[in-house]
From TrEMBL:
It comes from the Eukaryota. Pfam families: DUF599. The chain crosses the membrane at residues 7-29, 80-103, 124-145, 193-215. Keywords: Membrane, Transmembrane, Transmembrane helix. This is DUF599 domain-containing protein. It comes from Carex littledalei. Signal peptide: none annotated.
């Protein structure tokens, strides 16, 4: 029995860190790709399109002020929804951790993975930590969106004392969407860990499946990039 438990423990300590490192390595590669070759990723293209959108709003502010408010409202609703979800999940996990109920009892029929109490605590603490960081990112994203909403409609005259520049406003929007993206990616990293309650094999398979999906979502194909460039939507590197 002790040998079987050791085998389960080895699966937990091998497959789960391997899948997690796979996800972290992919996102580090994506971050480097966005910095060096933004036109080859949808994240980089999005940042450039956001800058073009801000320049358009500022140029014709009197006619497009409502468009800016409505677009910002949609972005805020998404961040608020995800922030609320993160809080709810974190609260539920914290309640489980503080409960005197032994969580491992319903899992006696689990095929793979250790059911030791310390391992179970690591599982829930890992999820709790990631969801709390996701909530922090969403909260900061809401803060920058709020600042952007106040400053995007500030008149741009010839007053040299006006500190609100177009670059500053673009930076606020970029930080807001950037933190929102980081929060979403933390959610993507945490979702496979939910299967860790069942066993590490499902966690590893879920990470592999998620990497395939994210790669097809994040990387711009040659045909799509050519069509994008022909329509003059790309305005330069970030």
């Amino acid at each position: 029995m002790d040998e079987l438990r050791m085998n389960w423990y080895c699966l937990d300590m091998t497959l789960v860190p391997l899948g997690f490192l796979m996800s972290v390595s992919y996102h580090l590669w994506l971050w480097q790709k966005v910095k060096t070759q933004p036109h080859q990723t949808y994240v980089g293209l999005q940042f450039n399109l956001q800058r073009s959108w801000v320049l358009t709003i500022v140029k014709d502010n009197n006619k497009k002020d409502m468009l800016a408010v409505q677009s910002l409202r949609n972005a805020l609703m998404g961040s608020i929804l995800m922030a609320s979800t993160s809080v709810v999940l974190s609260t539920g996990l914290a309640a489980l951790l503080s409960s005197t109920y032994t969580i491992k009892k319903p899992l006696n029929t689990t095929i793979y993975g250790s059911r030791d109490e310390h391992v179970m605590a690591i599982k829930y603490l890992s999820l709790l930590t990631i969801f709390l960081f996701a909530f922090l990112c969403y909260s900061l994203s809401i803060r920058f969106f709020g600042q952007f909403g106040f400053l995007v409609n500030v008149p741009r005259g010839n007053d040299d004392n006006n500190p609100v520049t177009v670059e500053y406003v673009c930076g606020l929007l970029g930080k807001g969407f950037g933190l929102n993206t980081i929060g979403n990616r933390l959610f993507f990293v945490a979702m496979p860990l939910l299967f860790w309650i069942v066993g590490p094999v499902l966690v590893f398979l879920c990470y592999v499946f998620m990497m395939v999906i994210l790669y097809n979502v994040d990387v711009v194909t040659d045909s799509a990039r050519g069509e994008f460039m022909e329509k003059n939507c790309f305005t330069g590197a970030v």
